[in-house]
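Quick one, tokens below. Sequence please?
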């Protein structure tokens, strides 16, 4: 059987077109892929490498040397040189060095620390044209299933991107000083050692969280990472820049050990000392004292603020942080086995 020349020519043309199409790489497979690339290109210039340094003396020359003692990630908060990272990334650092995406290195000053929230603010004196700040989103608008992207320096590999979704909201993790950080974002975007302090972004390239830790039996990413919501960060960073620490309204008490409350059979916050002239003293609260025979008598045990239980110190501080100076709180406390109530008007902190 003879093939028609026109038919043969048509088949050859089709084969040539198919081979050319296979040789040409596709532009983008999906709109999601395009979005991922655009967010990375937009946000990665704001992500920095944070190197914690320790000063040691050379045994032979007795010269002082700066050697690396840990590393993590941070990001540019503002174009005047402020950088945000985790507290645990710079904890105990004698010196800190910031490496920008253009590989230039700058000594950093530790401006403020908030171990309660695992946040720290640093400052570098780099030119403004090298500092690209991230826009800030609204973490209250997040929902489970929303796409998120994390950029960091895992294992020292700079500008590494991982993607995932919001796996859960309202999680609770432990800060470096054993305080609880509440309303944390959980994500399955891989967060490995070195990612700490890096930004968690939404599909618009906005900052929605600060990557802080993972849950993993092996120490590597197991698909369960956590990030501090940006709405918490937006409240704390200005305080760290202005005051160097987290500012709370003054209540005016010192806490006793938790087991004091357990001895009394109460879940609450036992008071060791009530400072004279401050809000708690004005409201009539009393701390521990010595009785006639020298025995220590328990003071008041606070069991609630505004009808919300305070089962421990962390509950108390978490509720206190939600108020500002001048606010009046209803305080429920136990004295001599009886539940009582008073009101405390919070005072301005002495800076």
């Amino acid at each position: 059987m003879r093939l028609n020349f026109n038919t043969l020519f048509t088949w050859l043309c089709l084969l040539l077109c198919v081979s050319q199409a296979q040789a040409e790489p596709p532009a983008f497979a999906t709109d999601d892929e395009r979005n991922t690339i655009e967010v990375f290109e937009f946000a990665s210039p704001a992500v920095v490498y944070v190197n914690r340094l320790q000063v040691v003396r050379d045994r032979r020359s007795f010269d002082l040397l700066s050697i690396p003692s840990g590393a993590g990630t941070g990001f540019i908060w503002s174009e005047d040189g402020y950088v945000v990272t985790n507290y645990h990334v710079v904890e105990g650092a004698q010196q800190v060095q910031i490496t920008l995406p253009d590989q230039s290195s700058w000594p950093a000053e530790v401006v403020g620390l908030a171990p309660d929230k695992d946040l720290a603010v640093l400052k570098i004196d780099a030119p403004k044209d090298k500092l690209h700040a991230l826009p800030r989103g609204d973490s209250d608008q997040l929902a489970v299933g929303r796409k998120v992207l994390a950029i960091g320096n895992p294992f020292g590999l700079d500008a590494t991107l991982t993607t995932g979704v919001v796996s859960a909201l309202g999680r609770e993790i432990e800060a470096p000083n054993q305080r609880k950080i509440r309303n944390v974002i959980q994500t399955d975007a891989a967060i490995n050692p070195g990612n700490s302090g890096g930004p968690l972004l939404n599909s618009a390239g906005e900052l929605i969280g600060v990557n802080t830790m993972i849950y993993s039996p092996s120490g590597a990413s197991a698909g369960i990472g956590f990030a501090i919501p940006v709405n918490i960060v937006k409240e704390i960073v200005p305080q760290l820049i202005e005051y160097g620490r987290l500012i709370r309204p003054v209540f005016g008490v010192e806490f006793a050990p938790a087991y004091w409350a357990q001895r009394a059979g109460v879940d609450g916050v036992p008071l060791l000392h009530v400072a004279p002239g401050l809000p708690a003293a004005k409201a009539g609260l009393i701390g521990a004292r010595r009785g006639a025979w020298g025995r220590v008598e328990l003071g008041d045990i606070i069991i609630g603020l505004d009808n919300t239980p305070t089962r421990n110190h962390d509950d108390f501080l978490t509720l206190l942080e939600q108020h500002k100076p001048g606010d009046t709180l209803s305080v429920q406390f136990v004295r001599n086995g009886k539940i009582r109530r008073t009101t405390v008007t919070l005072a301005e902190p002495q800076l």
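The first strand starts at residue 47 and ends at 57. The chain has three domains: 43-130, 139-243, 253-345.
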